Amino acid sequence: MPFSISIQSPFYTLPVRRRPKQFSNPQNSTPTPLCSSAVPPIPSPVTEKMMTGEEGQPLPYVSEIVLKKRKVRDELAITRRTQLELGKYGAKKSKKQSDVSDIKRPEQFIKEFRDKELDLIRMKQRAKRSKSMIPKLRSKLLFIIRIQGKNDMHPKTRKILYNLRLRKVFSGVFVKATEGVMEMLQKVEPYVTYGYPNLKNVKELIYKKGYARIDKKAVPLTDNNIIEQALGKHGIICIEDIVHEITNVGPHFKEVIHFMGPLILSKPEDGLIKGKKQPYKEGGDAGNREDEINDLISKMN
Predict the structure, then answer these.
(1) How far apart are CA 279 and CA 129, in angstroms?
(2) Which among 86, 148, 214, 227 could disulfide-bond with 191, CB atoms 3.0 to 4.6 Å apart, if both were Cys?
(3) Which residues pair with 145 in a beta bridge?
(4) What are the Cα distances from residue 194, in Å, to 30, 117, 173?
(5) Tens of pLDDT along 225-284?
(6) How would you class 76 by CB atoms within 10 Å of its CB: exposed for 0-12, middle for 13-18, buried for 19 or more?
(7) What residues contact residue 46 under an 8 Å CB cut-off, 6+ apart?
(8) Cα Rg of the chain, angstroms
(9) Closest CA to 246 of 279, 272, 273, 221
């Protein structure tokens, strides 16, 4: 039973009740609450698993090499996705990412329009030249190379180049030398250079750069059966017959030229073509080179 002690005071004696001593229960490790109003402790998830008998499963072991490979693979995937979004070599930009500098100003449109009109005026002036200024034809075969792009080019000039099948820069075609062709070349003189190719360059151009246009597809001239199927009715059955027909400008020259596509030449070395639109005789790159076209062909083939 609880007992009390008294504190001596000059006025009265105050009884003091002591709390009974707590004895631990060896069968139950949980301490007994001192009073019924005490809040029980909140068990943690780990404690709940231990109480219910459920233990956490250990994580699977992954070696360091596998983790490094995964990291490298993820980085490559991100880089590849960025390249696909930006375009080839990451240079192109989408419409949303375009800079303000890509927007053309009104002054640029005016300058382009004036340059094109100036090109048309100069083309008309070249067309009005007297026929005596057109050089005399020394051969039946001409080889034409386009050396300028489409900047500052009037649509009429572009149409003449397309009629000559010169749609790309540094592309070349064989044509039959006539007065009508020379008049066309005179109109587009700043954009092309031409001359008389020899047998050696004609043969090398056809063997190295020649191809056929079949069903709008480029087919290399590696099999004589392709030539025989297309030109066999004209007596042309092999690549040597094509070289002979083009060199001598034979009766089926037109059919052979349309069977073959324009020759795509290699880009010339630095300093070989300076980009000047002046005639070749005046120190430029354009115009008639006559026999000196063979040096340019050998360097661009």
Answers:
(1) 15
(2) 148
(3) 172, 193
(4) 106, 25, 10
(5) 889 998 989 989 999 999 999 999 989 999 999 999 899 998 877 666 666 677 777 777
(6) exposed
(7) 56
(8) 46
(9) 221
